[in-house]
Amino acid sequence: MSVEVDREVDSTTPIPPSPSRRERVQTRRERVKTRRERKKAHRSRKYRLIRSGCIAAIAILVAVPAWSLGRVMLADNTDPLGVRVVEWARDHHLSGIVNRIENFWYTHNQPPRGGTPKGGIPNTPAPVASAAKHAP
After folding, report:
1. Is there a contact between 118 and 111 (Cβ–Cβ < 8 Å)?
2. Residue 93 CA, distance from chain mean position
3. Average pLDDT of 23-45?
């Protein structure tokens, strides 16, 4: 069963062959790529502004505590670095976080029981009784 279509065909111009499947897919990919590029070009400036704004805000929020912690870490004292960082955190209202971390650490890494500490138990001097009494 065939359907005949009346069309006038100029005998001097050849009818172009229909594109193959490969050519149709390639053309579709080019269209999609072009569409993606157009969307990307349209969105890129807006997204760049939003992204750079977020990065700047995060940098500012991190810079202030980093400056303060850096000054504490570079301070000239005899305390170990870990102790200085913990003291800094507690001074800057982070004691709840420090306490949770210490609680977790000491519940999972308990010190050994018994024994004597290195250097022995230090002796403390006896308290001195004051002889002077206050007048009423």
Report:
1. no
2. 21
3. 69
Structure tokens at 19: 């594109």
58-67 contacts, C-beta under 8 A, 24 or more apart: 65/92
What angle is formed at CA 15 by the lines to CA 11 and CA 20, rounded to 5 degrees? 165
pTM of the model: 0.48
Neighbouring CB atoms inside 10 A of 86's CB total 17
Segment 76-89, tens digit of pLDDT: 888 898 999 999 99
Cα angle at 46 between 41 and 49, to 5 degrees? 125
pLDDT at 7: 57
Tell me if residue 120 falls in helix, strand or coil.
coil
Contact call for residues 89 and 109 (beta carbons, < 8 A): no
